[in-house]
C-alpha cells in the first residue's frame, strides 16, 4: 500500500483508510462521503460497523474487519482535523471540510497512478465490484451480498453473479478438459503467437 499512499502523513493515511474501507465494505462513493461520526461504531470489538445511508434514503449496517476498524479509529482520533466542531463528516479535505464525491474519485485515481496500475479502470466503483466478486469467490451468499451492497433486489446483482460464474468456469476448464487427460507430451520450443495467427481471427 505505501506505493499508492504515504501513511506517514495525515492526508496519505486518510487516503489509505478510504481505500481499505471501500474494499472491505463495497459501499458506494456517495455513501462513503455521507459517513458521519455518529454512524461509525468502533467501540465493541466483535460489533464494529458503519451505518450507511443508501439509495432511497434506506439505512443499512455494514460490518468491518478488525484491521480496517483499527485503522479507521486511528484516522478519526489522530489524523482527522475538522475546520471546526460543527463538521461531523468522517473524511475531510485538507481544509478540514467534508470530502466530496469528486474529491474521492480524484484521490483514488491519483493512488492508482502512483501504484503504476495500467490496463484496468481505477475508480471507487472498481472497489465495489472487486468486493462483490471476492465475496462470492470466498463462499459468500448472493442474498447477503445484495443486502450489504444496498440493492433492493437480487436481480440487480446478477451481473456480479454472472462474472463470478464465468471466472469460476474458466478456472476449472483445464482440470476437466478432455485434452488434459491425454498424454500429448511437451511441445518443442515455446509457443509464440504471431500477428497472422488464426487465434486472432
TrEMBL record:
Record domain Tyr recombinase: where: 1-173
Compositional bias ranges of the Polar residues kind: 192-201
Residue ranges of coiled coil: none
Entry GO MF terms: DNA binding
CDD domains (alphabetical): DNA_BRE_C
Entry superkingdom: Bacteria
Gene Ontology biological-process annotations: DNA integration; DNA recombination
Swiss-Prot/TrEMBL keywords: DNA recombination, DNA-binding
Region (Disordered): 175-201
UniProt similarity note: Belongs to the 'phage' integrase family.
PANTHER family named in the record: INTEGRASE_RECOMBINASE PROTEIN MJ0367-RELATED, PHAGE INTEGRASE-RELATED
Protein name listed in UniProt: Tyr recombinase domain-containing protein
Organism lineage: Bacteria, Bacillati, Chloroflexota, Ktedonobacteria, Ktedonobacterales
Amino acid at each position: 500500500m505505501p506505493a499508492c499512499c504515504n501513511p506517514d502523513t495525515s492526508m496519505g493515511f486518510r487516503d489509505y483508510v478510504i481505500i481499505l474501507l471501500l474494499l472491505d465494505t463495497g459501499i458506494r462513493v456517495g455513501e462513503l462521503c455521507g459517513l458521519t461520526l455518529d454512524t461509525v461504531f468502533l467501540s465493541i470489538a466483535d460489533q464494529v460497523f458503519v451505518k450507511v445511508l443508501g439509495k432511497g434514503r434506506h439505512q443499512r449496517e455494514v460490518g468491518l474487519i478488525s484491521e480496517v476498524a483499527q485503522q479507521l479509529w486511528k484516522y478519526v482520533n489522530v489524523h482527522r482535523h475538522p475546520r471546526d466542531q460543527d463538521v461531523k463528516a468522517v473524511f475531510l479535505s485538507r481544509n478540514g471540510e467534508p470530502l466530496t464525491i469528486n474529491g474521492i474519485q480524484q484521490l483514488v485515481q491519483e493512488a492508482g497512478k502512483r501504484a503504476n496500475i495500467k490496463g484496468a479502470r481505477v475508480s471507487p466503483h472498481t472497489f465495489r465490484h472487486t468486493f462483490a466478486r471476492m465475496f462470492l469467490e470466498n463462499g459468500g451468499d448472493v442474498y447477503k451480498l445484495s443486502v450489504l451492497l444496498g440493492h433492493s433486489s437480487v436481480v440487480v446483482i446478477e451481473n456480479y453473479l454472472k462474472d463470478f460464474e464465468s471466472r469460476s468456469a474458466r478456472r476449472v476448464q483445464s482440470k476437466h478438459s478432455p485434452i488434459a487427460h491425454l498424454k500429448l507430451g511437451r511441445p518443442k520450443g515455446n509457443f509464440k503467437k504471431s500477428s497472422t495467427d488464426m487465434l486472432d481471427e
